[in-house]
Description:
The complex is a heterodimer. Chain A has helices at 21-32, 46-55, 70-84, 102-107, 120-134, and strands spanning 8-12, 36-39, 60-65, 90-95, 112-115.
Amino acid sequence: MMEKQAIRVLIAKPGLDGHDRGAKFIVRSLRDAGMEVIYTGLHQRIPEIVRAAIQEDVDVVGMSILSGAYIDLTRKFSAESERQGLGERLILVGGTIPEEDVPKLKALGVDGVFGVETDIDEIIHFIREGVEKLG
Amino acid sequence: MKEKITKKKDRWREKCLSQAPYRSAKAELSGVDVDVDILYTPDSIASIDYPQDIGFPGEPPFTRGIYPSMYRGRLWTMRQYSGFATAEESNKRFKFLMDQGNMGLSVAFDLPTQMGFDSDNPEIEEEVGRVGVAISTLKDMEILFEGIPLHKVTTSFTINGIASIILAMYLAVAEKQGVPFTEVGGTIQNDILKEYVARGTYIFPPRPSLRLIVDTIEYCMKEAPRFYPISISGGHFRSGGASLIQEVAFMMLNGITYIEAVLARGIDIDEFAPRLSYLFVTQLNLFEEIAKFRASRRLWAHIIKERFKAKDPRSMMFRVYAAGCGDVLTHAEPENNIVRLTMMTLAGILGGVQSFFTPAYDEAYEIPTEKSALLGLRTQQILAYETGITNTVDPLGGSYYIEWLTSKIENEVRKYMEELEKKGRMVELIERGFIQNEMARIAYEKTKKKLSGEKVVVGLNKFQSAQAREKLQIYQPDREAISKQIARVKRVKAERDNEKVHYCLKRLEGAAKGTENLMPYLLETVKAYGSVEEIVNTLRGVFGEFREPVM
């Protein structure tokens, strides 16, 4: 039997905010959980993030946004994914996001939204389950 | 004497303490846990020489405080920090504050400004005016300070990557008002090295950035001597997850880097060191925080004196601005943060800070209301006026535990600094991503401990109530005001003498390729209404851009 391939994840910091503690924590935690994680670093433009996701052929794209610009940046991400033909991936957004805006992000194609103080195991579980469903 | 106490203490441990069960305790200093003894006694600090190591306030090594009378002479400055989207709104707020007798203004910038983009750049439109005021050309700065005589106020600018441009704009406004540069006072944060590690608003690589900083220090020294050209920060490391030891050690290594760069221009240490200031945060371990300030004053005085041969005691003073650390505030049960902030403020005051900022308790999940921001200020006022803690200088000095901790922290920082200096110079370590990884390692461990409950956070991972979390509220800037700002930038660019701007940028480019001080060129360019983005792009062409090392 073929060995199960590790889940590939791109963690991205779109926009200009420099708060990367959460993103770096996620990177390390997912690696500890056996996933292959690519971290873009700060200040990435949306087209570059989509390009990286395609090039690295990741299963999951997680964007960490703490500037409050999550709706605009996610909208740009959806449009750009469409344009570049990203296809089916598990899309996650993390950061300071009020409850009432979660449906707006989901409507833009986001699969999971995780606020600060979220338990990391919850995120790992969500990714494993989500990737399995993607097939 | 020492032996006698040690002997008696051993007897006490054996005969008395052994009968009483007790838990172990660790100091949180460095991520590497340090055991805390159950009792400190005179023999714990027997190696400390009072006159030499502790001494008197206002005299080196300043362990007990940098001024002789400390808060009996004058209280610390209670500084509050806030951002508004546009120059007009901020200007209104400034005038209100001045009417209340507050002459210390403070400016927070939006992210595009901090990163060197103009408001009219469509690529960053979603971030204009979000976390502070947008400044693209001198016109915005003129509106920000319209009707505010710059010799009557001092302004603190939280700006790093483009600090030299903001300084040039502020001076240009002063010139238009007819205020001589020698009468202009204020502060720019201007500490770029920490940005690569913790705050993220860097543009150029470390070396050319360092040159820009030395340019501002040298220029202020000669032309605007009332201006503080840099605030060297440890606090941002700590807020990003660093340990207490890292907060102090990274700050000092960066400070040493800046000082060496200024000295390399043939400037004497005593000419500029009295204009340096420092920035820390406080967290919740009260005694460790208090000892941190005392240890830092002592260690920094030694470094400035011994390493840099300063003669003027003012060069050796560790002037510190501190703030309660937002990182320990919780979204769960937010009122608990009021208690946390009180303790962090107390730590700053007992630590002998020169100024302090108490954030609002709801900062973790919303833009503070007027009421919650006022509560921050009231916390400081209650401690200052109702508790009597200001009645004597350094009231905890002489406590066996505090003095032991002070020495312990000083030694741990010294050891860590030596270890890092052996690995390379700070600029190289940052270029290689080494410092970033050192910090991320500790931050990861700390976050894990918090999530697992090993580090107790009341209301979050222990003693939780069923109480629903307060609703998150994200500040949405006024779209109309933002559109006005964008239109203004476009109008300025259309109406100015573009040939002159082009000429100034060319001259700036030429100077950047050489070694001249760039401040006069920046001043000339901003006065011609050359924009932040145009200047940054010109300099980027010469300096290049920093790319974060792969994690």
